[in-house]
Amino acid sequence: MENDNLQNNLEYACSLFPSVAHACRKIGINRQQFNKYLSGTIRPSRHNMHKICNFFGVTESEILSEPSRFAEIMSVRRAPENSLDASPLSPALKRMRQLSGSLDRYCGFYFGYSYSFSNPGKVIRSLIRLSRKNYDYLWKFVEREKGPNRSFDVYKYEGAAFLLRERINVIMYDALQYSSISQIMLYPSYEASIDCLLGVHIGGPVKRGRKPGAARFLQKYLGSKVDVKLALSQCGLFDPEEIDPKILDLIGNEVHAPWSVLEVDET
After folding, report:
1. Can you give the residue ranges of the HTH cro/C1-type domain (predicted)?
2. Percentage of the chain with pLDDT > 90?
3. Which of 105, 126, 159, 170 makes an SS bond possible with 112, Cβ 3.0 to 4.6 Å?
4. What is the mean pLDDT of residues 234-238?
């Protein structure tokens, strides 16, 4: 009975999105595998069930409930598409955009470097893109880590960037599971051409559970256009000795006396 409910409820939940493929991409589950859940052939693993529930904003017991009950739950949980305009957050977001300085000169691709939140002692190199759409500056951030079966786990984050009080402020969310929000704060560059941007990355990646963390963060400019496939192939986890020593010196997370907080000096 529960399997029948799950099958019907997944079909209903996916109908609220442009397509099943769209939902699969957002959840981060292979379409072929997801089709087996829709057909009732197999039940999701605990890990995949957690991802599905996080994406649809429900608990496991709710997604296994009677279809009529589940439809009621989804109608309450799912906000209308135009609800942002009526949200009390909307004026604040618009105000930040109005106050933000231009980030046009920073648009392009970067490698990001920091010590990994989830893998002690390792340095992670990520791929970042900052672009402009109308009056907004959009941020895309991709990490990849080699999993236990030697395949790569990919983590994607999307968000917005603002230049406020001589700081580049980035707010981004987990674009696959919608389960976490991270922030990056960077010093702007005053050089004629951009090389590196230095700052702090604050977040709580899924692998850390509920534990938040902070790390010094460096972005190295790659250019306005890159071979994305090639750049992604160069991302991943590295031992510190594999990283340029100059970069390594700038991303160390030592706290120096007399301070008791992690901070970053402007270079």
Report:
1. 25-63
2. 53
3. 126
4. 95
For the record, the structure tokens of 177 come out as: 């599971």
- Calculate the average pLDDT of the chain: 88
Burial class (CB in 10 A: 0-12, 13-18, 19+), 139: buried
Q: Does any domain span residue 82?
A: no
CB-CB contact of 26 with 55 (8 Å): yes
Residue 96 and residue 93: Cα distance in Å, rounded? Answer: 5
Looking at the predicted structure, is the pLDDT value of residue 80 above 60? no
Question: Do 220 and 114 contact (CB within 8 A), yes or no?
Answer: no
CATH code of 38's domain:
1.10.260.40
H-state helical runs in 40-132 = 46-56, 60-63, 67-77, 83-86, 89-99
* CA-to-CA separations, 125 to 122, 201, 238, 253, in angstroms, rounded: 10, 13, 8, 16
- Looking at the structure, tell me whether residues 158 and 195 fall in a common domain: yes
For the cut 90, the answer to whether the pLDDT of residue 197 exceeds it is: yes
Whether 61 and 174 share a structural domain: no
| C-beta of residue 153 within 8 angstroms of C-beta of residue 126 | no
As given in the structure block, the two tokens for residue 227 are 């071979």
At 26-77, the pLDDT tens digits run 888 999 999 999 998 899 998 899 889 888 888 889 999 999 988 888 876 6
